[in-house]
Amino acid sequence: MANQYQQYSTVRKYWHLMRPHTLTAAVVPVLVGTSTAKLFLLGSQDNIKVMFFIAMLIACLLIQAATNMFNEYYDFKKGLDDHTSVGIGGAIVRNGMSPKLVMNLAIAFYIVAALLGIFLAANSSFWIIPVGIVCMAIGYLYTGGPMPISWTPFGELFSGLFMGMIIILLAFFIQTGNINSFVVWISIPIVITIGLINMANNIRDRVKDQASGRKTLPILLGKRASITFMTVIYIIAYVFVVYTALFVDGGSLFYLLVLLSFPMPVKAIRRFKKNDTPASMMPAMAATGKTNTIFGVLYALGIYISALLGGI
After folding, report:
1. Nearest alpha-carbon partner for 225 in 273, 186, 260
2. Is 14 buried (19+), middle (13-18) or exposed (0-12) by CB count in 10 A?
3. Largest CB tally within 10 Å, which of 20, 145, 286, 288?
4. Count of beta carbons in the 10 Å neighbourhood of residue 258
């Protein structure tokens, strides 16, 4: 019984190390990009290549998990994580994990992701390789390197663009063999919802981050302005989808399924306004992650249903 509990505890440590609440930021863009590809394969003899979809999904999950491990490693090395840290970060301090093991595991995840990328490139285009290298470099440089992106006001922008738009474009490309303006357009709301997961984390940690010398966007704006910014950007994401559904060629009323997710960002904003300590803001941060998940899945579902019904 003791050995069984110990094994469960070990599995749980590794699961927390990957920060599972952030992994939907890798899943949602692949779903949206693949659903949009389905829309553009209408009338052709081609269909969605399930093997490519699975390879892309696993590669993105591995890169996201590895990025989280780099974050763990460098936050520990820089003394940012201690026993007072909230959330499921701080696995090295809280769970006694070896820093070297965490780094090696992250590198191993990158190697497997790279092999999957080579498989996809061999079956589509070798231009995927340099794009993949850049994405992996950004994942590392987010917390690693001489000037980590996470220490600047651009963390939200980089996470939104590279986890949102670039993954959607890659998922679309491996299925269709091309990129067009519509898939770029369709990716913008996901850029927003993923970027705001990052912003929620930075709002929660702004006091400790400022003491460490970071200059994140919430530190520069302050809490009140950051919440206002988050509110406005969330509204833009929903208005964008409504506009696309009603007025953009290729849009569909099924895209409006995303409106079912609207209570989640409202909940996030209210919780951020009501609370001010890192621990009390954890539910607000979780709500931003759920917003991305529910919004993204409904968005992908709406696009996919539209494709199944002939793009209406």
Report:
1. 273
2. middle
3. 288
4. 25
Tell me the C-alpha distance between 82 and 93, whole Å. Answer: 6
Q: For the beta carbon of residue 215, count every other beta carbon within 10 angstroms.
A: 12
Give the residue among 211, 302, 293 at the shortest CA–CA distance from 252: 302
Which candidate, 242, 236, 233, 285, places its Cα nearest to that of 260? 242
Give the C-alpha separation, 92 to 82, whole Å: 9
Count Cα neighbours of 311 within 13 Å in the Cβ-side half-sphere.
Answer: 11
Q: Which residue is associated with the tokens 């950051």?
A: 226
Q: How many residues does the chain have?
A: 312
As a whole number of angstroms, the distance between CA 272 and CA 290 comes to 15
Sign of CA dihedral 140, 265, 19, 23: negative
Q: Whose CA is closest to 167, among 14, 263, 28?
A: 28
Q: Is the pLDDT of residue 22 over 50?
A: yes
Tell how far CA 261 is from the center of its chain. 17
The pLDDT score that the predictor gives to residue 17 is 75
Q: How confident is the model at residue 47 (pLDDT cuts 50, 70, 90)?
A: confident
pLDDT in tens, 223-280: 999 999 999 999 999 999 999 999 999 899 999 999 999 999 999 999 999 998 988 9
Q: What tokens does 289 get? A: 């992650």
Pairwise CA distance, residues 102 & 280, whole Å: 28
Could you give the 3-state DSSP secondary structure of residue 127? coil
Whether pTM exceeds 0.85:
yes
- Within 13 Å of residue 41, how many CA atoms lie on the same side as its CB? 20
Q: Which two tokens stand for residue 64?
A: 């996201």
Q: What pLDDT, in 10s, does the model give residues 120-178?
A: 999 999 999 999 999 999 999 998 888 899 999 999 999 999 999 999 999 999 999 99
